What does this fold into?
Amino acid sequence: MGCLKITYFNYELKNYLSNILAVVTDRKLVKSYVNSAFDGVESDVVSYLNYYPFGMLMPNRHGGDFYRYSFNGMEKDDEVKGKGYSYDYGFRKYDNRLGKFLSIDPLGKSYPWLTPYQFASNSPIVASDIDGLEANVEIVPNNNSDKPILEIVTYIQIDNQSDLTNDIVNNYAAGAILKMEDVMVGTITIKGVEFDVKSIFYLTDGDKTFSLTFKENGKEYPKEYGVLGEADKIGNTQKNNSDIYVDEDTDSNKEEMYETTAHEKLHELGLKHYDKEDNIMNTYADDSKKQSQMTAKQLKKVVKKILNQQKDKTEKNKVKDYIKNNK
It folds into this structure.
């Protein structure tokens, strides 16, 4: 006699740090019956998690601990220290009770002001520590359209080498990230299938990320060129850096600085100059126009560059499989 095996999918609900807050399945549970009448359904919640800032689980505010992934989306290592106390970050193991890694940072010499055991520069509310991540692409459902959302996820590390305070530079970086997320949106078509593209940028302290360096403006150049920026390499989505030159006058020209940052980061993602007045890849800024647009062709090139340079082909294969099943 044959049997029918039913498989349910798990869906992770995350926050901006990729912390998994809950996991639900696609199974619908009967809510209740009132006088033998059906009274609706409710979600099948298989895991729920609340964390302290450095990732330790709050007592009596978590359940379903069998799920493999948790804080920062990392895999738990429950064999030595018990459930939920240790995470595998690839290069190192992390103890969330200490808020420290258990071995030194291989890049520690580049950050002499931080202990080599630190996690996320001791700022776990605004940053995550992700070893080995690169720009990647995810496909997520779109509640407002039949077209799926293609998310470009990019991790950026900030380095302040200017005379401005860290608070000022961090505010500049936050504004620049919002500008990049505003610019890198639109609809593209890949092999006959349409996707709505959305961009997400995270600040992180991990290795192999994009970096953004703010330097003191000591360069001589015509002021009509706007805020000056330079990208190390065009089209390197694995690891790259952009330099943005700032000084005490930048505060009165922040919008242009945001546009310059987006411009240089898009160089890293494969775009060259495109001298159309309102395009973000215009060579020089025009104070009379907002450089906040990119073409669908440019956006498609960015997505393809990221997919083709992935060391792990999981995301690329995911897109290929989606196109194959939905053409």
